[in-house]
Design brief:
Shape: globular
CATH class of the largest domain: Alpha Beta
Strand content: 15-25%
CATH topology of the largest domain: D-Maltodextrin-Binding Protein, domain 2
Number of helices: 12
Order of helices and strands: HEHEHEHHEEHEHEHEHEEHHEH
Strand order of the largest sheet: 2-1-3-10-4-11
Helix content: 40-55%
Distance between the termini: 59 Å
CATH architecture of the largest domain: 3-Layer(aba) Sandwich
Length: about 325
C-alpha cells in the first residue's frame, strides 16, 4: 500500500512538472531573447542574426537583442551559450567553423557541438570569394587562380592569405588551395572577416577567401574576385568561375549560419523557434535581405544535427589532408 501511494505521488509530481513545463513553453518567449553572436558587427553572421532578430521580434512579440562576443573563432560566444539557462531566451547564432571545425583543432574547446546544444535550424548557406586587391603591386599580373598559383610556386611562403581566425573555414579554404596546388602559402589570421577584408584593402595580405559582404567592393573595383569557393557560381558575380572550374576539381568550401539553444531546452520551444525562423525567412522582404548574404536554407532540428555530424567527419579529412595543426 505504501509503495503504491509512493508511486502515485511520484506520478502526480511528474505530471505537475510536465504541465508546468508545457505551460512555460506555451507562453514562450515571456521576456527579451539574446542572440549571442561570436563574430564582430558587420560580419555575415552578425548581419544574418540582425535580419532574423528583427523578424522574430515582430513575430514572437518580444525583443531579440544582439549580443556580440567576438573572438577565438566564435568559441567565446559558443561557451557562453553552452552554460546558459536552457529556457529558450539565449540563442547562439554561429557559423559552421565554430561548430564543425573548432572541435577538430582545439584540445580544450569548452563545449561539445553534439552534446551541449539543441540545433534549431540553418538560416543561410554562403560561398566564399577568392579575392585580391588589384592595386597591390605584389598581385600585378594576377588575373586568375592559375596566375595566383603560379606566383606562389615562384615565391614559396611569400604569397600570403588572410582568414577570420585560426581554424576558420577561410583558413581551411586557403590551406586546401595550397595543398591542392602543391604550393607553400603564408597564412595570416585576423579577428573576424571584416578585419581580414580591411587587410586586403590595405595590402597587408595578398589574397583571401572573402565573404559576400565584399561583393560591393568587388563591383566597385576596389577588390577583384578570382573565383567562387563553392560548387556553383555566385549569381551576383557573373563571369567569375568556381575554384573547381579553374582547374582544382573537387574544391568546394562554403559555410552556413545557424541557430542553437543550450541542451535541455524544452522541445516545444525548439519547435517554436524552428517554425518561427522558417516563417521569417520566407517573408519576401526578409528573404530578399538574406539573399544578399547567401542562399536561404532552413532545416528541421534533426536534419541540422545530421548535417553537423556529416561535416565533422568531412572537415576532419580536410584538416588531415591540409596538415592543419593548432591545439591550445
Amino acid at each position: 500500500m505504501k509503495l503504491t501511494r509512493s508511486v502515485q505521488a511520484l506520478g502526480v509530481a511528474i505530471g505537475m512538472f510536465c504541465m508546468a513545463a508545457t505551460a512555460h513553453a506555451s507562453s514562450y518567449p515571456d521576456k527579451p531573447v539574446r542572440l549571442v553572436v561570436g563574430f564582430s558587427p558587420g560580419s555575415t553572421i552578425d548581419t544574418v542574426a540582425r535580419i532574423i532578430g528583427d523578424g522574430l521580434s515582430k513575430r514572437l512579440n518580444q525583443p531579440f537583442v544582439i549580443d556580440n562576443r567576438a573572438g577565438a573563432n566564435g568559441m567565446i560566444a559558443a561557451r557562453a551559450v553552452a552554460s546558459a539557462q536552457p529556457d529558450g531566451h539565449t540563442l547562439l547564432v554561429s557559423n559552421s567553423s565554430s561548430i564543425t571545425v573548432n572541435p577538430l583543432l582545439y584540445d580544450d574547446l569548452g563545449y561539445d557541438p553534439l552534446t551541449d546544444y539543441e540545433p534549431i535550424t540553418t538560416v543561410v548557406s554562403v560561398p566564399f570569394v577568392l579575392t585580391i586587391n588589384p592595386d597591390n603591386p605584389r598581385m600585378k599580373g594576377v588575373n586568375s587562380v592559375h596566375d595566383l598559383v603560379k606566383l606562389a610556386r615562384e615565391k614559396p611562403e611569400e604569397v600570403s592569405y588572410g582568414s577570420a581566425g585560426n581554424g576558420n573555414l577561410m583558413h581551411l579554404a586557403g590551406a586546401q588551395l595550397a595543398a591542392m596546388s602543391d604550393t607553400e602559402m603564408l597564412h595570416v589570421p585576423y579577428k573576424g572577416a571584416a578585419p581580414m577584408q580591411a587587410a586586403l584593402l590595405s595590402k597587408e595580405i595578398d589574397f583571401g577567401f572573402d565573404t559576400l559582404a565584399g561583393v560591393p567592393l568587388m563591383k566597385s573595383g576596389k577588390l577583384k574576385p578570382l573565383a567562387i569557393s563553392a560548387s556553383e557560381p555566385w549569381r551576383d558575380l557573373p563571369g567569375v568561375p568556381t575554384v573547381a572550374a579553374a582547374g582544382f576539381d573537387g574544391f568546394d568550401v562554403s559555410f552556413w549560419v545557424g541557430t542553437f539553444v543550450p541542451k535541455g531546452t524544452p522541445p516545444e520551444i525548439v519547435a517554436t523557434l524552428n517554425e518561427a525562423i522558417a516563417a521569417v525567412s520566407q517573408d519576401p522582404e526578409i528573404q530578399q535581405r538574406l539573399m544578399l548574404q547567401g542562399n536561404v536554407l532552413n532545416m528541421s532540428p534533426a536534419e541540422f544535427r545530421q548535417k553537423i555530424e556529416h561535416e565533422l567527419k568531412q572537415n576532419e579529412d580536410l584538416i588531415k589532408k591540409a596538415n592543419i595543426k593548432i591545439g591550445n
